[in-house]
Amino acid sequence: MQAFFRRPTALLTTPVRLTLAFTALYIVGTLLIFVFLNYQLRVALVGQVDKSLLDQQNLLTIQHKEAGFPAMFRAIRNELLNRGQSDRTYRVFDAKGAKLLEAGELRLPVDIPAGQGVHEIQATLNVGEGMPVKARLLSFMLNGQIKVQIAKSMQDTDELMTSFRSAFITTVALILLLGLAGGWWLAQRFWQQIESFNQMAMKIVNSGNLTSRMPVTGNDEFSVLATNMNAILDKMEKLFQGIRQVSDNIAHDLRSPLTRLRADVEVTLQENDPQLFRLTLERVLTELQNMQEIFQSLLSLGQAEAGSLKIRKKPLDLSQLLEDIVELYGPLAEDKGQIFEADITAQIAIEGDRQLLAQALSNLLDNAVKYVPEGGKIVLSAEFKDDKAMIRLDDSGPGIPHDMRRKVFDRFVRVDPSRTLPGTGLGLSLVKAFIELHQGNITLSDSKLGGTSFIIVLPVK
Amino acid sequence: MRFLIIEDDASAADFLKKGLGGFGYDADVAHDGEEGLSMARGKDYDLWLIDVMLPKCDGLSVLRSLRDDGKQVPALILSALGQVDDRVEGLRAGGDDYVVKPYALAELQARIEALLRRTKNFDDYPETELDVGELHMDLLSRAVARAGQEIFLKPREFRLLEYLMRHADSVVTRTMLLENVWDYFFDPQTNVVDVHISRLRYKIDKYFPYPMLHTVRGSGYMLRSVQGADEA
Q: Scanning A118, A134, A311, B203, which has its CA 20 to 30 A from the CA of B159?
């Protein structure tokens, strides 16, 4: 039995797999975003640096054009002095290549041709041990004689990029951690729920005890699942109870006639009397017919209660069905000296199985006609009440004692203790089963006629 | 008369064959669906008795195939399945009647006779009048008379008599009457049918020199077209 049940291992559960898959996806996505942002940011920052260099070129060119070299040198000096923190470096060479001016924090490599836009170069800092730094350098000619170089260190930009990267990575790591923790928590919860179901299923399979139920907590999909599984268990429990009860009943009520049959046949076989043989065989046939009837009733009952009986519901004129039954039983009651009356509202339309309902009513009337004494009264009435069809069968018979009323629908229960009248004790069980197949119910109470009153309530649809 | 029994339980088939022999019918036996199919195709039988649950090819499939061939032999289905649905399915497959196992031989005999009679009297023109001995029934005016004397019947009594007249001189069982006159496919515990028969008998026999509606002990009833004694 245990082979039916595999327990999931925590690592393979669906949420764990989902969490891992989403984490991987998240990492790939974040990497792509990082590469893109990093590139964009650098392009923007470098652009800013380059623009400031080009602005300087414009400024110096204008100074030189309007006021000559001295004004330009002054401007450079002003730049360096006024903005003490200026990180720009200036170099000016004459036509022969002699250095006219060099000012700024950077020591630039020697030979860089002019007029080719901004370059990225490797420079060193004047201060300290000559630490290498990256820099942007713009080189241009003035008047075709003077070569001017303006450079700016990329240290600030690199620092910005570095802090951007670390901020980004920290954030991503945090989110990742949170996601993993959340996923783990969900997986744990999911696993626990599933595990509790598995435990219960295993318990039921191993013990064969169908009374256990799944725990229903909260209002989520798990509780819906648990409720539905419990419904399956309810149905199964009912089915098994039905089967068990049927086999108990068969053992009880078919074994006794079988014992009688066997004894009868064995005793007869000891003799050698053809006349006796014939009589015994006739008794055997009668007994077989009774057993067949019990068997058929038990079968229908088992099928009806287990829900495997095919019910053919069709629109049905219940009033007509009842009139037909009255017509069928009327002469019988009359012959027995009983007064049989019907008070049936016309055209009560319901959905139902004509055969099953007719059989149920026929069983009830069989009983009534059997138990009501001569001169007694039987009344079948039906009406449409509160969207339901209500059928009453009243009689002036001996009635059913209170202590029997609960049991009277059980199998093989017979009110007549002497069991002098024929019957299987299954008639009322069948009535109840057939009525319940129609989602109806049957109850009994004291009748105003002095005997029993059976009340059947049927939904119209 | 030669019948074909298609039944996989050999001893059940044997008993059935013997029982039918007692009524004057010969029968061949097929033990599975395929054998039954080839036997039914190879020879002209007067009736098929077909069990539903058969090895190789189930009874209803056999019957459907034979009907597809265009064979019109009357078919009686014998089945352990007794629900109305099973019955409907059996009749849809081409069965002419349906008997639930275990059955009484007398019940089977009565139904076989009803089936044979139905095919013998097959008529393209629906009858408007029935005549059995002194009894006359006009189906259109719904008038009934015995020896020219009018008899008044309630609607159900009329249908009861009509069925008996259509099956005159053969046995009809209580179950057949419940099925065909009342359209009930269950047997009430009390013999309600007996009471209706005695009412009818009172109307058609009481004031006449000899009875026509007879009780056949252990089986059912018979409407005789000629004067005769009750069976012992």
A: A311
